[in-house]
Structure formats: C-alpha cells, structure tokens
Amino acid sequence: MLCGRWRSCRRRPEEPSVPAQVATSVALAPPDGGSRRPGLRALKKMGLTEDEDVRAMLQGSRLCKIRSRTWHKERLYRLQEDGLSVWFQRRIPRAPSQHIFFVQHIEAVREGHQSEGLRRFGGAFPPARCLTIAFKGRRKNLDLAAATAEEAQRWVRGLAKLRARLDAMSQRERLDHWIHAYLHRADSDQDSKMSFKEIKSLLRMVNVDMNDMYAYRLFKECDHSNNERLEGAEIEEFLRRLLKRPELEEIFHRYSGEDRVLSAPELLEFLEDQREDGATLAHAQKLIHTYELNETAKQHELMTLDGFMMYLLSPEGAALDPAHTCVFQDMGQPLSHYFISSSHNTYLTDSQIGGLSSTEAYVRAFAQGCRCVELDCWEGPGGEPIIYHGHTLTSKILFRDVVQTVRDHAFTLSPYPVILSLENHCGLEQQAVMAHHLRTILGDALVTQGLDMQNPEELPSPEQLKGRVLVKGKKLPAARSEDGRILSDQEEEEEEEEEEVEAAEQRRRISPELSALVVYCCATRLRTLRPNPVPPQPCQVSSLSERKAKKLIREAGNSFVRHNAHQLTRVYPLGLRMNSANYSPQEMWNSGCQLVALNFQTPGYEMDLNAGRFLINGQCGYVLKPACLRQPDTTFDPECPGPPRTTLTIQVLTAQQLPKLNTEKPNSIVDPLVRVEVHGVPADCARKETNYVLNNGFNPRWGQTLQFQLRAPELALVRFVVEDYDATSPNDFVGQFTLPLDSLKQGYRHIHLLSKDGASLSPATLFVHIRVQRF
Fold first, then answer.
1. What is the protein's membrane topology class (predicted)?
2. Are residues 17 and 244 in contact, defined by beta-carbon separation less than 8 angstroms?
C-alpha cells in the first residue's frame, strides 16, 4: 500500500512515536539547555512566555480583596508556572489546594464596578483599578482592587489571554499541561531528574496505585543511564509507556492492517462502522488533514496512531453530536412548543430561610442558559420595591438593581427571550414604581404590546422575540375598571387552608401600569383541566407546585399533555424544601411542561439533568419539544408510552486521568465504577453500573456492557456517572456527563467529564462504545 518514499521517512524502531495525547517532548528539562523550569515550558507551549501581562502575573501582585465596607485586605496573587492556576495568600495558611484557583473554573472577568460586591463596597477604589473574577458553580466572586489602573488591566488582559488559549487547546495539549504540573510537583528537589521515590509520588498524584515491583521494572526499563535517575528522554519514554492506550491501539490496528497506518478508505470503513452521518471519502480525507500530526503522512493522506488518537479525543470523537452544539432546531414555533430553562427564587445563593440574596445569582443563572428568572417583589423602604424570600431571614436586594442586571447580562450568551416571573406582594404605589423601572431600564427590549396585532392571542416564537423581555404576572381583565379587585400573583399552595388564608389576606389590586406590561404571560390558576371543546388561551400561564403537577400527570395524563401543547405551564419546588433542594425535572418534561423551575444554586443530579437537557441547540435555553408533545390532538401519555421502540447498548471500556478526590492525602486512590442512568418516562427510567476497579483512577479498564430498553427515546436523557466505590459508606462522586439520547453519537466515543458544579474535569474522560437500535 505504501510507496517507497513514505516508507523511507517512517521512524526507525529505536525512535518510537509518542501517543497523540502526549506532546512531542514531555521531559522536564528543555532540549535547548535554557530554563529548566517545567511550568515556563508549559507557558511556552501556550505561546505566552514573552507576553508582558502574563510575565507580570508570574511575578505576582498585591491586590486588595474586598468583601464588605470594612473588610479590605491586601493579599498576594501570583500566576503559577503551569499557566493554569493562580496561587493566593491567606491570613491563616491552609491545605495547598485551598490556596489556588484554576483558570478553567473562571466564568468571567469583569472590569470596574461590575459586580454587586464592588458596587456596594468598592466606592473607595476608582473603577479603573477594580476587577471581579466570577467563577463557575457556587464559588463566590473575587472582588479585587489593584494599586494602579495598569496593574488591574494586566490581570484583566492576562486572564483573558490564558482563558482564550485554554479554550483553544486540544485534549492532547491539556493532557500535556496536566502531566507537566504533576511532574513539577513530584520532582521534590527540583533537579529535573526523577528518582524512583519521586516516580512513585507522581503515580500517586495521578491517581494510580501501581505495584512496586511492576513500577520499578518500568522505571529500570527507562533508566538507560543506569544511575537510578530518569532525565530528559528517559522521562519522555516513561511517560509514553504510562500514557499508552492499548484499547485505542487495538481498534486502530483492526482497521490499519500490517502497515500500521490508516489510508483514507480504511478510515472511511471505520467511520461507516461508527454509523457516522455523512461518512464519505472526502470526509475521511478532511479528518486526516485536520488531526494527523505527521506532515509526511498527511501529504500521502494517511493517518498514524497519533492522528487517530487526536481525532477520537477531539469534539468530533465525543459522545455529543457536534451538529447539536449550535442552534439547529426550528426556532419559529410558538413558545409553548419549547422546553425553557427556568430558575426558582433566582435571587437566592443558598437556603430558602437565611440565605444571601444577590444580583450575582441572576448573572450566574443567565451564564447557565436560564431564560426564565423569578423576582419575589415586596414593599421596600423609601418607596423602592425589594426582592427577597418573604417572611424569612434572607437578605434583601433592590428590584431596580435586578432589572439592571437583566438588562446587562440576559443576552450575553443567548439572544432568545427572557421571561421575568413576578411574584408580586407590593401595593399599588410600588407596583407602579416596578412598572416604571421595567420601562425605563429595559427600554425597547421590554415587550409592551402584541407583535401580531391581527392575532394578539397567539404566542410568538423565540425567533420573533430575540433580544426581548417578557413579564409574567397578573393582568387586569379588559372589561374591568382600574379599581377591580383581583388575586395577587403569589404562587399557589396545595393545602386548602393555605388557599383560604391566601384568598382572605392576599387579595390585592393590580396596578394598571404593571398590568399593561403583561402581554403574553398572564398568570392564571389551573385548578382543573378544561374539556377539549373550550378554545385554548395560549397567553395564560399556570404556576403549579411540583406536588400539584405530579397529581395532574398521574390523574390527567394525556389531557395535561394537550394543555401544554398550546399553553405555558410553570412548575416550582415545594415550599418545604428549605435547604433549596430540587425535584427531578424529567417527570414534568415528560408531560410537556415548559417552565420547569429549579434552584440553580443547588448542585446535584437534578441540575445535571437540566444542564443535559439544555446542553444542545447552542445552549440557548430553548429546546424544541418532541412532536408528540406539540400536536394539539396528541394521544401521548407518559404513564402509558407503549411498547419498547429502542435498544441502547453501552460498552464501558476505560477511563483516563480521573481526578483525585482527596489531594491532601497522597495515598488516597479512587476505586472507580461507572453508572449509566436513563431518565425518561417512568417505564424507561433505569440505572446500571459496572464493577469497581481497585486503586486506579489513572487508566481503569472495565469492558462491561450495559443495555436499556426504551419506549419514548425522544424524551430520554442519558447520564454517565463515575463514583469512588466505598464498601462502608455511600460512594463519592467523581464526575458525570448528561445529554439527550437523540444527541448521542454511536460507535467508539470519549465522554468528557464534568464536576458537580458543571466545570470541566479535563483531561478526565470515559471511553465507551455506543449502539442505538431503533425498531
């Protein structure tokens, strides 16, 4: 197959190729005899060693951390040499892991007084000297003030460059940085040589408990200088052996034949076996030109093992269909035809009783794709409405500040409409103030009249409402005078006694100014489902507690599905969930409920499901419901979905570089197992798991097959979970990834794991084989 010219340029046996997930040189000491600091080599690979901003960050800065009006403390912050983490000083020294934060966990870096903390407490510092580092997950913002405006700008620019470079890294580069960081830590005397003791320390750091005899044999096989130290090329060889992927080599050799390279037709055969959409010879050639590392091989349209690994570790080799990562669904249907990412008590950062209320909670919700946020509005001092969880010890924030946050952050990541769900406890005067703030702050973004005056009662589409804000609340009946009494839009409770109290004590007048802003989302109680002959009222929205929603699902079934085909329904957690716990949203989605509101501040499997549901369609916060939930005459009932129509078979093969759970205990190694969960209609819900692998979080192997029968695959979410097995207590969470079944690619795939907070655990992956059979 190979021409003589290609054969002559292939490596000799004594020059083994480095696997794709390892950079060309992984030795501690640079070959040019320059700086022997491995972190600077890592930055050099990022192309940032000569960047003035990054160099200044490496030197460190004394920045003032601001937490309150009186708590302003100067602390040293310094970029670590790996370019991936920042070390910071604490007043009381803690464990090493408590003194760093990672660049990949940063959600945003804001200049000036662009956080709630700096707006409230940063008045003594000019905006030009201030910056805010906002993190993914629950970690609090870091509000900082530099000594000069230029120093603040160096950190703003430097972090932006590091984040951009990190986002552009391939999986191979990420793994290279990851292993270099551990090499640097394991080299205890920083002499760029690795003793066997240091190698053993490295192995424990990367989550593998290797037998001493085997580890020493591997060490000696690489110790060509026979001096009980590995350096330069010897370290490179040791890492090459350590990071070997036998399961990928086996797959590669199955298709490549004796010459150990893949031609474009051979790669095409692999793609066809993968059931890859659009598998053509031209596509195979494109993959070779994209992922092959060897230029000579690329010129001859051949793919080596390195290129094959690069491809399988790329987004094109991931379980999530790349075509589904952008907006690919029809966005021109009525709002009621979409699942809409929704938050409950959005202002809270913690519990429902004594937690902190913050505008930052809205910023974080929008950063997670949320499109419906809640505002609990109460009478405030000085004529200004406030937002908090009424009759509790939660702190209070101004309604005006929340509306400004909506204006500034609602459309940063998604252009599609935002719904403000108002729970209104204010009197007429402050309701008028609310209406004034909404109009003046949001301006033209606020929807104040129907878009289609010919059909004002029809719900518009997300496409028609791009960049617009809708108000959900009570509306005065058209035929009633301005003095007409009407129930407030407080969320309904289930118990009859509470309803009576609410009817007696919570009857309020609705301000005509606020009523005028409610156009397409008129809050209405749903006590019973209307019989079919009654014409639908698309602009009415019902808010149901999870308990009432479950009752309707159980008792009304198909009637509830039909109701949700043309009207919006919002579901919220029971008030008894004082710790801000969540319910499973899947049951509500099964019946077509669009606005399934969760406590975004509380991580857990429920929020994993929410993130998985809205992972697709560009993470824009809108996902088109399956056809069976959109048709007005649908016969679908989630309680009776019919016979199995799909078989999902997942072979769990291996995992790579799982995170160490207890970084402060060197001898603590995970015993990983993998659980695959299917969340869908009740008949489809199932979970199956592998055995655990003892003391190996670095490259555990399973080779176990898990199979599932599905009746409503179009509603199913698949959740991959890795846990650390414990025989005497509940397993510890390691990582997970959730996605819709319809976005799951078949064949050999890598699953890139996420933390509890949804942050990347790169380079941690699962390697699986997926098959979906529909019948």
1. Peripheral membrane protein
2. no
Cross-strand pairs, 471: 420
Helix (H, G, I), strand (E, B) or coil at 191: coil
Phi, then psi, of 732 in degrees rounded to 5: -90, 140
User: What is the rounded CA–CA span in Å between residue 141 and residue 138?
Assistant: 9
**What span, in angstroms and rounded, lies between the C-alpha atoms of 607 and 585?**
9
Q: Are 719 and 607 in contact (CB under 8 A)?
A: no
| pLDDT confidence of residue 483 | 45
pLDDT in tens, 36-84: 344 555 566 666 777 899 999 999 999 999 999 999 999 999 998 888 8
Q: In three state form, how does the secondary structure of 548-616 look? A: HHHHHHHHHCHHHHHHHHHCEEEEECCCCCCCCCCCCCHHHHHCCCCEEEECCCCCCHHHHHHHHHCCC
**Under the phi-then-psi rule, with left for phi > 0, alpha for psi from -120 to 50, and beta for the rest, what region is 226?**
left
β-pairing, 595-598 with 568-572?
Answer: parallel
**CB–CB of 400/607 below 8 Å?**
no
HSE-up of 149 (CA within 13 Å, CB side)? 5
Name the 3-class secondary structure at 416.
coil
- Rounded to 5 degrees, φ, ψ at 185 are -70, -35
Q: Residue 638 in 3-state DSSP? A: coil
**Residue 263, token pair as written in the block:** 């031609």
587's tokens: 């049951």
Q: Could you give the CA distance from residue 401 to residue 347 in angstroms, rounded to a whole number?
A: 11
Q: Which two tokens stand for residue 593?
A: 């409920």
Angle of CA points 350, 351, 353, to nearest 5°: 135
The β-bridge partners of 75 are 63
Q: Which residues are catalytic?
A: 344, 389
Assigned token pair, 205: 């750091």
Residue 764 DSSP code: E
Which residue shows structure tokens 């009432």?
Answer: 548
pLDDT tens profile 669-721: 899 999 999 999 999 999 999 999 999 999 999 999 999 999 999 999 999 99
Q: CB atoms < 10 A from the CB of 756, how many?
A: 16
Cα gap 57→160, rounded to integer Å: 12
C-alpha dihedral over 300, 304, 310, 314, to 10 degrees? 60
pTM: 0.87
Q: How far apart are CA 471 and CA 492, in angstroms?
A: 18
Q: Which of 527, 553, 729 is nearest to 641 (CA)?
A: 553
Residue 743 has pLDDT above 80, yes or no: yes
Query: From CA 589, how far away is CA 374, in angstroms rounded?
Result: 19
The residue length of the chain stands at 775
Q: Which amino acid is at 444?
A: D
* Tokens 């973004």 -> residue: 445
Q: In what order do the strands lie in the sheet with 672-679?
A: 686-689, 672-679, 717-724, 732-740, 747-754, 760-774, 646-656, 701-710
Q: Residues 620, 375: contact at Cβ < 8 Å?
A: no
